[in-house]
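Why does residue order matter? Because the sequence determines the fold. Keep that principle in mind as you read this record.
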Amino acid sequence: MLRLYFVALQFLAIIPIPFSFRCREEDLGRSMSFFPLVGLTLGFLLAGCDYLFALALPRPVADLLLVAILALVTGALHLDGLADVCDGLAARGGRERFLAVMKDSRVAPLG
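Structure:
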């Protein structure tokens, strides 16, 4: 069970894990049930950073640092998904055009 948590963590974040383990082909599908727990882990990390930043930094600076930490820890996975949806919503045309714009890999927030 703990192995599936670490599979989910490796998929959703780029946090290095200090040990190695075998990952089978079906493990990613099984680890999806741990995605909320990984999200909670990342949330606790950001909440802890927010608490520390609030002691010494103005709110806008702390917020900017929190977004930067989330982008670094997740490899900007969440920002890329948000950017794809915004690009799709701004596209003119039907459903096919919306999906084509979202799938375009040449445009990305870190590209």
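Residues 2-75 form one domain.
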